[in-house]
Amino acid sequence: MPRPKFKTLIIVPYLPLEGVIEFSGLKLWSFQKNLDQFVKDEPLKDHLKKLTSCYQFYRGHVLQNPTIISVGRADFSNPSRKTIAKIEALKNILLLASVLENNSWSFTTSDNFEVFYQRFNVGDDNISTSGGSIHRILAGGYKLGDIAFTKPEHVNIPLRFSAKGSIIRALEDCLINSSTVPAKSQVIQALNPFFNAYRNSHEHSLQSRILLLIMTFELLFGETGRPQFRTNIQRYSTLGSSLTMPTHNYPIVNYGRVTSHEQLTLNQIWAEEFYKLRHKIIHGDTVYSDDFIFSDLLSLVTPREPHFAISVNFFVVCVINKLRDLGFTNVPRLVINPNARAGLFTKNISGIKNETFKLEEIITL
Q1: Taking CA 151 as the corner, what is the angle to CA 348 and CA 101, rounded to the nearest 5 degrees?
Q2: What is the DSSP letter of 354?
Q3: Angle at Cα 363 formed by Cα 357 and Cα 365, nearest 5°?
Q4: Which has the closest alpha carbon to 100: 183, 37, 166, 44?
Q5: Which segments of 179-265 are extended strands (E)?
Q6: CA 163-215-179 angle, 5° bins
Q7: Short-list 89, 94, 97, 15, CA closest to 316
Q8: What pTM value is reported for the model?
């Protein structure tokens, strides 16, 4: 008797996709809207409906519109290691593109792009699970219809997933050419620690999030060190604009004392203080809750805001401007402009009212 031919459902349960996204041989599609279009085999279709109905809210309601990832035609063959690596990179890319669309009524975090691989044999209702990343835990003896995979409470499901195609296409090019163009590889590599930092779970400490965000910038810029960090933050947060920013004679502190003064813009002052926080964590100094809130030595900025939220603003703008620097001129033109007025051309992705480091879109008429 021949052994059953297993298939694999690749599902993104917490991402309500509007239509279809094609990415380097992968196809993302809405289970609710595109199932009949992509799957013609009725027994396979019925089995997929049973599998997807296992993903539920805590009160037992089925998640209505999960996203499916298929390779080529939707035959659900087992993915290769190369395909899985590409899916992992795609998660990072989609998060970056979606963060720029966050607003007060609909937002995404890394949790929305988590991918689950469910191996199955059509017609066989037996199902097993595995969990853990350091020590794997395997469990079996379940049946479809009896088991539920419950959405964690910290995962928000937006009304719909929205992202600019120009950003996804530019990052797709960076992924394809990352082995031959170092600057494109830097962009792709920087997205992974950002993905890990931007989870909504309370289980991740602020210290670990800050270090991950520092890593994103160091990978993106290809440099380390405070002076280089200040320079790159100023360059990539205002690239291609005519924005002029006042400078301030700012004290540079090393080993607890002022060792020099530098003429710094407000963007660079934030970079200086953010990197000092990095040093404090790295060197094992005591880190207080107040340290995670930006303040400057000249009392230029009030009210004070979280370093995490500020760094997310800077990171997404620096990525976009590095893409523009690489020739992808169809991506949005964005800057971090503390002097911008909140309004039509500013984006608020943090939810902080009257934030200091405003993300401003430069509109070319």
Answers
A1: 20
A2: T
A3: 160
A4: 166
A5: 248-254, 257-264
A6: 70
A7: 97
A8: 0.93
Query: E strands of the chain, at which residues?
Result: 7-12, 20-23, 26-30, 55-56, 67-71, 116-120, 126-131, 137-143, 149-150, 248-254, 257-264, 334-336, 346-347, 359-361
For the chain, what is the largest distance between any 2 Cα atoms, rounded to a whole number of angstroms?
81
Would you say 306 and 292 are in contact if contact means Cβ atoms under 8 Å apart? yes
Q: What's the pLDDT tens digit per position in 92-148? A: 999 999 999 887 677 899 999 999 999 899 999 988 887 787 888 887 778 998 889
Q: What is the pLDDT of residues 254-288, one digit of tens each?
A: 888 999 999 999 999 999 999 999 999 999 999 99
Burial of 32 (0-12, 13-18, 19+ CB in 10 A): middle
Residue with tokens 């993302």, as numbered in its chain: 28
Crossing angle of helices 307-325 and 206-221, in 10° steps, is: 20
Q: How many whole angstroms separate alpha carbon 35 and alpha carbon 180?
A: 38
DSSP-assigned beta bridge partners for residue 254: 257
What Cα–Cα distance (Å) separates residue 301 from each residue in 141, 179, 188, 239? 59, 42, 33, 23
Q: Which of 214, 195, 213, 204 is nearest to 98 (CA)?
A: 195
Residue 195 CB contacts under 8 Å (≥ 6 apart), including other chains: 91, 92, 95, 110, 113
Is residue 221 within 8 Å of residue 229, measured between CB atoms?
yes
User: For every residue of 262-321, which 3-state class applies, written as one string?
Assistant: EEECHHHHHHHHHHHHHHHHHCCCCCCHHHHECCCCCCCCCCCCEHHHHHHHHHHHHHHH
